[in-house]
Amino acid sequence: MKLQKETKVGRDVQDARKVHGKWYGDACAAAFGMELIGERWTLLVIRELMLGGRRFSDIRASLPNLSAKTLTERLETLQELGIVERAHLPPPVSAQVYQLTEWGRGLEKVLQELGRWAVRAPFHDPSLPLTPTSLMLSMRTMLDHRKIGDMELWVAFDVGEDHFAGRLRHDGLSIHPVGDTMMTPDLRFSARSASDFLPVFYGKQTPEEAGNRLAIGGDADLARRFIDLFVLPAKVEMKAAG
């Protein structure tokens, strides 16, 4: 599908009416937002593009339960809406990727607030599969900015075959994908899967208590201070029915 520089709804008012009100018939902006991104799989596709452009095959590999047909449909719709666009990587890669537009990247705050809200549910199940991108976005979300103080450091995250560079500064944690190696990070965290990070970063277990599935390189005290920055919100207390 040819990349559209303007959104479908921006081109024609009649087309806009096919999107706005298609489910709810409600002028509320939040209802309209659900009409734009509320279809099954749409938010997860957006999530997987949040750290940068990715090839169709890479998105499929991250979301194995999503069919190629449905992914194609979701990407086409997101392009028509102006949330996603296609781009071509320069040589030697020379590959087509899908990436979020400036408007689309604004959805990270939506994902963060939704994540903070949903993780408070006592029936949230962290043992389900977790993608490397989802883990990185989780860290950006659950970082307690009040604890950063004067800490500034580079952090390497190796999650299976995916590699990320993190830059911690007073204003937060920026993360982007990198190649196989990152030169001289202050800390390095390596594990086979994203789930292997959770007992240490959020459960506050030592790597030994967590089965030594997460390897940590760098100063041990600095690593403990860094891990301490990540805090999950308290669970909601559910009252018994009746």
Automatic annotation (TrEMBL):
GO BP term, pick one: regulation of DNA-templated transcription
HTH hxlR-type domain segment(s): 28-126
Pfam families in UniProt: HxlR
SUPFAM superfamilies the record matches: SCP-like, Winged helix' DNA-binding domain
Family matches, as CDD domains: HTH_ARSR
Keywords: DNA-binding, Transcription, Transcription regulation
MF term (GO), any: DNA binding
PROSITE patterns tied to this protein: HTH_HXLR (PS51118)
Superkingdom assignment: Bacteria
PANTHER family: TRANSCRIPTIONAL REGULATOR, MARR FAMILY, TRANSCRIPTIONAL REGULATORY PROTEIN
The name this protein goes by in its record: Transcriptional regulator
Organism of provenance: Novosphingobium malaysiense
